[in-house]
């Protein structure tokens, strides 16, 4: 069974369960007069929309690449995750308003053991759904399933709070039901904001996984004739569809054919190991040039004096142009003036050489 087909069936199953829970709780909430149960019911109704969107997104994102979408349709799953987050936030705001009104003007709540049992059963169902999404996501690696998993476990907490408030309503006239509903709505809102942030980071191109970056770089450095690697860029086109590029330093003494063979092998190995299409740019390095080594040491020493977090790569001495080329690496979190760095580097004695510098933030 294909990934798209599995995801579609999971979405359909989730839609059915959430619809059953929503309809049941709406009926119980109206019969008992509990605003907390009604809040929980509408939360499940929102889940019906989100799981339906999950099913549809898997069908569309599973389509093959075409002329208009050469990298496939996988990013649609991120868009759907964002839509789910917006639904969650809207529901939360609506019930914050309703709960406040109920606190100001409370209405009686009618307790019933059968109603209590149905809500308790709903907690068990939601817990099962969360576990099901978690297990399914291990093989499918889908952001929409991850969002549904988080939402399901969140609903377990919400329904538990609802159950407690419903039980306590038997013993007091204080509008605890509305107070609990307000806390539930606030929790839904906070989780919705978190989900918006995480999906937006992916959609607009947030920083890639540092752990994955480190693993790929370490893997590249274990390959033969690789002196160094830098500027790894990962481009996410949906689950199981990533493209990357990297600069790899190789000895300039290698023939073009030998260098090409080494790079081809790296690209194949990365695809096999990480399921990532990698494009490698070759940076030839003259290992025997004493002039280049001395200037390189001078640059390294000066940058370390300015700030130990500074680094560089793409260092090259062109004796024909009498120019030193270098890329200075500045971490994003480092507060340092580019002009100050360049001014300090210009104080170095390069003899007849000038230097051209590119600032590279990472």
Describe the overall structure.
With 362 residues, the chain is of the alpha/beta class. The chain has three domains: 201 residues, Up-down Bundle (Alpha-lytic protease prodomain-like); 79 residues, 2-Layer Sandwich (Alpha-Beta Plaits); 74 residues, Alpha-Beta Plaits. The protein is 62% helix and 15% strand. It contains ten helices and six strands, in the order αααααααββαβαββαβ. The strands form two sheets. A three-stranded mixed β-sheet has the order 1-2-3, covered by helices on one side. A three-stranded mixed β-sheet has the order 4-5-6, with helices on one face. β1 and β2 form a beta hairpin. It starts with a helix and ends with a strand.
Write the layout of secondary structure elements.
Blueprint: H1 3-32, H2 35-61, H3 76-104, H4 113-140, H5 143-168, H6 176-203, H7 210-221, E1 228-236, E2 242-251, H8 256-274, E3 276-285, H9 290-306, E4 311-318, E5 323-330, H10 338-345, E6 354-361
Helix pairs in contact: 1-2, 1-4, 2-3, 2-5, 2-6, 3-6, 4-5, 5-6
Which key phrases capture this entry?
362 residues, alpha/beta, single chain, Alpha-Beta Plaits, Alpha-lytic protease prodomain-like, three-stranded mixed beta sheet, 3 domains, 10 helices
């Amino acid at each position: 069974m294909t990934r798209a087909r599995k995801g579609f069936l999971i979405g359909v199953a989730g839609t059915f369960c959430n619809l059953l829970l929503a309809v049941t709780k709406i009926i119980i909430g109206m019969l008992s007069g509990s605003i907390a149960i009604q809040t929980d019911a509408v939360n499940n109704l929102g889940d019906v929309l989100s799981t339906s969107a999950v099913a549809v997104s898997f069908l569309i994102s599973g389509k093959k690449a075409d002329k208009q979408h050469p990298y496939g349709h996988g990013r649609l799953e991120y868009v759907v995750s964002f839509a789910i987050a917006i639904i969650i936030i809207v529901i939360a705001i609506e019930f914050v308003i309703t709960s406040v009104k109920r606190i100001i003007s409370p209405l009686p709540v009618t307790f019933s053991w059968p109603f209590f049992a149905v809500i308790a059963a709903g907690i068990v169902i939601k817990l099962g759904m969360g576990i099901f999404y978690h297990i399914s996501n291990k093989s499918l690696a889908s952001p929409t399933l991850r969002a549904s998993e988080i939402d399901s476990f969140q609903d377990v907490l919400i329904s538990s709070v609802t159950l407690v408030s419903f039980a306590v309503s038997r013993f007091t006239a204080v509008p605890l039901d509305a107070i609990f509903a307000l806390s539930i709505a606030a929790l839904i809102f906070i989780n919705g904001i978190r989900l918006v942030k995480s999906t937006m980071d992916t959609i607009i191109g947030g920083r890639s996984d540092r752990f994955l970056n480190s693993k790929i770089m370490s893997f590249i450095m274990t390959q033969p004739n690789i002196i160094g690697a830098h500027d790894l860029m990962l481009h996410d086109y949906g689950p199981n569809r990533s493209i990357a590029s990297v600069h790899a330093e190789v000895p300039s003494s290698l023939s073009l054919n030998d260098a090409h063979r080494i790079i081809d092998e790296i690209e194949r190995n990365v695809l096999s190991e990480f399921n990532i299409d990698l494009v490698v740019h070759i940076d030839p390095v003259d290992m025997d040039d004493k002039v280049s080594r001395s200037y390189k040491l001078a640059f390294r020493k000066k940058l370390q004096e300015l700030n130990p977090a500074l680094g560089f790569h793409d260092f090259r001495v062109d004796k024909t142009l009498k120019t030193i080329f270098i890329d200075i690496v500045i971490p994003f979190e480092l507060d340092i003036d580019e002009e100050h760095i360049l001014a300090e580097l210009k104080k170095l004695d390069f003899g007849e050489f000038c230097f051209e510098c590119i600032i590279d933030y990472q």
